[in-house]
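Project outcomes to date are best conveyed with an example. Our students and postdoctoral researchers have been running inverse folding experiments weekly, and each run begins with a structure described purely in C-alpha cells. The record below, which covers 320 residues, was selected by the lab manager from last quarter's runs and is presented without edits.
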C-alpha cells in the first residue's frame, strides 16, 4: 500500500485514539477592547503594545497595519522581545509591509538576545534561505542550537533534521537520533513521528515496530495527522502486528478528518479494493476526489489517475 510521507504536524487535538470527536476549547476570559488597550499603551504599559498591534492587524473594522507597525516599533524601542518577533514576522512575510529579510533577521536576533527562544528559531528559518536572505545552513543550525539550548522543542527537532539530512553539518545519524529523542522528551509531536519512522525503518536505531507504533500514537494524541496515517500503515501492512484493516481504516479516517488530504487516497484504495470494508467504487471515487485537492503533486497525480480509472469503469487494482 502507498505509504505516507512521515513528516509534519497539524497541531489539532485528538479526542480519542480510534475515535474522532468535536474539538473542545477551553473558555477564555473577555479580551480587552481596542480602546482599553490603546489607553494602556498610551500610558506606557509595554505589555499592551503587542496586543494592540495584533488588533490592528486583524482583518475587519480595526484593520490598520500602519498603526500596528507604530506600536510594534514602540515595543521594540522598549526592549520587548514579543514585539521584536512580531515585527520581524511582518518583514519576513511581506504582507502588511515590504518584505525585508535582513530587518526580520535583525529583529529575531535581538529577541533571542533577550532570551526569546522563538527569536533564535526564526533566525534559523531566515538562514534557510527565506525572505530573500542568502542561504547559510551552518548559521541556520547555529541558531537552531541556540533555540534548543533555551528549551525550544522545535529547535531541537531542527537540529535533529540537520544531522539527518546533512544540512549545515555532516550527516550523523547518532546525533540525529540523540536530538530527536531530546525533542521527543520536550514534547515535540514532529519528533515523535519521525523517531517512529526511524524505528520502523531501522534508521539509526535497531528496527522495532512496537516502539514505532507507540511513538505514532503519542504523536497522534498531540494532534499529528501524519502520525495518525503512519499508525494506519502499521495496521494495513502488518508491521509488527497482525494485519487489521478495521484499525487501519479508523486511523486513516482520523488523519483525513484532521486535515491530511493524503489519507483520503489510502482510504480510497481500501474502499476500491474492499479491504476491511465492502468494496464501494462510488465511495472510493469521492475519496480520491478529496485526495486530488492535495498540495502534494505525487498524491494529486495518483488520485487523478485513480479517478480516471474508476470513471472509465476499469477493474484494475489500485497501485500499491
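After processing, the design step wrote out the following sequence:
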Amino acid at each position: 500500500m502507498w505509504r505516507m510521507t512521515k513528516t509534519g504536524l497539524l497541531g489539532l487535538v485528538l479526542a480519542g485514539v480510534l475515535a474522532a470527536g468535536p474539538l473542545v476549547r477551553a473558555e477564555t476570559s473577555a479580551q480587552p477592547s481596542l480602546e482599553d488597550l490603546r489607553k494602556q499603551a498610551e500610558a506606557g504599559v509595554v505589555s499592551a503594545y503587542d496586543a494592540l498591534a495584533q488588533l490592528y492587524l486583524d482583518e475587519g473594522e480595526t484593520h490598520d497595519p500602519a498603526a500596528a507597525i507604530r506600536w510594534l516599533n514602540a515595543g521594540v524601542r522598549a526592549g520587548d522581545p514579543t514585539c521584536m518577533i512580531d515585527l520581524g514576522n511582518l518583514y519576513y512575510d511581506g504582507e502588511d509591509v515590504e518584505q525585508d529579510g535582513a530587518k526580520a533577521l535583525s529583529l529575531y536576533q535581538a529577541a533571542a538576545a533577550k532570551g526569546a527562544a522563538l527569536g533564535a528559531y526564526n533566525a534559523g528559518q531566515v538562514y534557510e534561505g527565506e525572505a530573500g536572505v542568502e542561504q547559510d545552513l551552518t548559521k541556520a543550525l547555529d541558531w537552531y542550537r541556540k533555540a534548543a539550548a533555551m528549551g525550544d522543542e522545535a529547535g531541537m527537532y531542527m537540529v535533529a533534521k540537520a544531522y539527518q539530512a546533512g544540512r549545515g553539518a555532516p550527516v550523523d545519524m547518532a546525533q540525529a537520533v540523540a536530538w530527536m529523542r531530546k525533542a521527543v522528551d520536550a514534547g515535540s509531536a514532529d519528533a515523535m513521528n519521525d523517531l517512529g519512522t526511524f524505528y520502523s525503518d531501522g534508521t539509526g536505531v535497531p528496527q522495532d515496530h512496537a516502539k514505532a507504533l507507540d511513538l505514532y500514537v503519542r504523536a497522534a494524541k498531540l494532534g499529528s495527522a501524519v502520525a495518525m496515517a503512519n499508525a494506519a500503515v502499521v495496521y494495513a501492512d502488518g508491521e509488527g502486528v497482525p494485519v487489521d484493516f478495521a484499525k487501519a481504516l479508523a486511523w486513516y479516517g482520523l488523519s483525513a478528518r484532521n486535515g491530511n488530504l493524503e489519507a483520503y487516497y489510502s482510504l480510497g484504495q481500501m474502499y476500491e479494493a474492499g479491504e476491511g470494508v465492502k468494496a464501494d467504487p462510488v465511495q472510493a471515487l469521492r475519496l480520491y476526489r478529496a485526495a486530488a485537492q492535495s498540495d502534494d503533486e505525487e498524491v494529486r497525480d495518483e488520485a487523478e489517475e485513480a479517478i480516471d480509472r474508476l470513471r472509465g469503469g476499469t477493474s484494475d487494482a489500485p497501485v500499491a
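The two ends are 4 Å apart (CA to CA). The CA atoms of residues 33 and 52 lie 9 Å apart. The training component of this project remains on track.
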